[in-house]
Structure formats: C-alpha cells, structure tokens
Amino acid sequence: MTRANKYKTDMLIEAGVSQFLDDNFYGKLKADTRRWKDKEHQFAGIDTTINHTNFDEKIKIRGCLNSVYGCPSFEVSLLNKGNEVQDGWFCQPLSTDYYAFIGVYSYGNDENAVSATTQISACDVLWVKKQDVVDMVEEQMTID
User: Per residue in 100-129, pLDDT tens?
Assistant: First the structure.
C-alpha cells in the first residue's frame, strides 16, 4: 500500500471511529460537545471540545484492534518532506487540554473495516490531562 493510499484509508478509519463515538459516547453526554474538522482546530490539536475543554483524540488501530490500548504513542520528532527532522505534535505548543486515547473493537479482525461504523462493536476511551503527561515526561527525562 502506498503512503497516499494508507493516508486515505487512515482518514476513512478515523471518520468511522469518530462517527461511532459521536453516536454512542459524546452524543450521550449531557454536555456541550463539538467535533472539529477544520484545519485551524486540527493544527491546534483539537478534535473535540466538551464544555470548553479541548480533546486531542488518539485512535490506535494498527496492530491493536480488539485489544486494550496499552501503549500510547507520542510523536516527539519526525522527518518532514524536506528530509529534515522537526518537532512532532507532542512538542508543539498546541491548545490540547486532554488526550483521548481510544481503543477500537470490531466484529471482525479487518483493521480497514472499521471505517464503517457498523463494523465497530465498542471503543475504550481514556482521558488523560495533557499537563499530567508533560509533567511525567519532564520528571523522567527532558522534553528538550
């Protein structure tokens, strides 16, 4: 699968999981909830806002479907299109208040199938305060 095809598939999966969460989780909360899809909010690290609190959703499917989301990943640096190392999203000054780590369960074992909400049976959602993660990293090592 080419990088472009993988990106398209990942966007479909993200859309399917987002719709499932909107229908079965956020929609059930008695709160002012809004999902953001525009570039401004996405680049600010905001996928969802609940009562003025910003959440960056981290959906992990590849190699983790139908299992507890045990090891969140944080992008500290990346190799950009110019072949230069740059800071990843974790080291950026984003507007994220909480990370929403989301594990996905499906009726089957096809990771790509969860782009259809009818193939998702459940999701685990763990909210972790961004500052708590930053404090732990700074306690254990340096962000620099």
Answer: 999 999 998 888 888 888 999 999 999 999
Distance separating the N- and C-terminal Cα atoms of the chain: 35
Task: Give dist(CA 51, CA 24) in Å, integer.
Answer: 18
* Pairing mode, strands 85-87 and 48-50: unpaired
Of residues 35, 37, 34, 42, the one with CA closest to residue 92 = 42
pTM for the full predicted model:
0.88
Q: Is 65 exposed, middle or buried (0-12, 13-18, 19+ CB in 10 A)?
A: buried
Which residues lie closer than 8 Å to 106 by C-beta, 6 or more apart?
65, 66, 113, 114, 119, 120, 121
